[in-house]
Design goal:
D-Maltodextrin-Binding Protein, domain 2; 4 helices; four-stranded mixed β-sheet; 24% strand
Amino acid sequence: MAIENSIAGSILANYNLLQKSNLKIIGEIYLQIRQNLLVNPGVKLEDIREVHSHTMALQQCYDFLDKHKWKLVGNRRYCFKRQTYSPAQKQTYCRYREQTCS
């Protein structure tokens, strides 16, 4: 369970979950997370209008994303399953995700 994020700070929702449970923290590990910008084949950076991802991933990558002035659409329960987009959306939407998300 993630408790701290070196870029985005404390993950308060997880602190709350721990307080409501009988679980105890017995150690910690540090993970390097690589984020990936996912687009459909043939889509160029200049074609992108919106980026959809988990709120934390957007926060972690804000400096990069802000340079492009894309609309950022966050969702706290965002892990990538197959999603359907219209033909127009396929050319302008992309997703940001962790390499380990399935």
